[in-house]
Amino acid sequence: MLTENGDLACLREHDGSLVWGKNILKEFGGSNPRWLISESPLIDGNKLIVSPGGSGAG
Q1: Is 57 within a domain?
Q2: Dihedral of CA 50/52/57/58: which sign?
Q3: Which domain holds residue 11?
Q4: Spatial CA neighbour of 30 closest among 1, 58, 2
Q5: Is residue 18 in a domain?
Q6: Does 42 reside within a domain?
Q7: What is the phi/psi pair of residue 48, to 5°?
Q8: Are 21 and 8 in contact (CB under 8 A)?
Q9: Distance of CA 32 to CAs 9, 13, 54, Å?
Q10: Helix/strand/coil (H, E, C) string of the chain?
């Protein structure tokens, strides 16, 4: 899941408990647009794709 404030998390399907999490805006130096983050993470094989912005994170 990805929240409007950049919190990206992997949750267990059976109980919703946290597997791992990070804030993509803090991690990559991005800034939140006025309309906040409104994207869905894309899973492609073993890759997770999001677009946090920031220098070198496009």
Answers
A1: no
A2: positive
A3: 7-49
A4: 58
A5: yes
A6: yes
A7: -115, 125
A8: yes
A9: 17, 28, 10
A10: CECCCCEEEEECCCCCCEEEEEEHHHHHCCCCCCCCCCCCCEEECCEEECCCCCCCCC
Please give the Cα distance from 46 to 31 (Å, whole number).
Answer: 26
pLDDT in tens, 1-58: 999 999 999 999 999 999 999 999 998 888 888 889 888 999 999 999 998 877 767 6
Structural domain includes residue 58: no
Q: How many domains does the chain have?
A: 1
Residue 26 phi, psi dihedral angles, 5° rounding: -70, -40
What's the pTM?
A: 0.80
Q: How many CB atoms lie within 10 A of CB 18?
A: 9
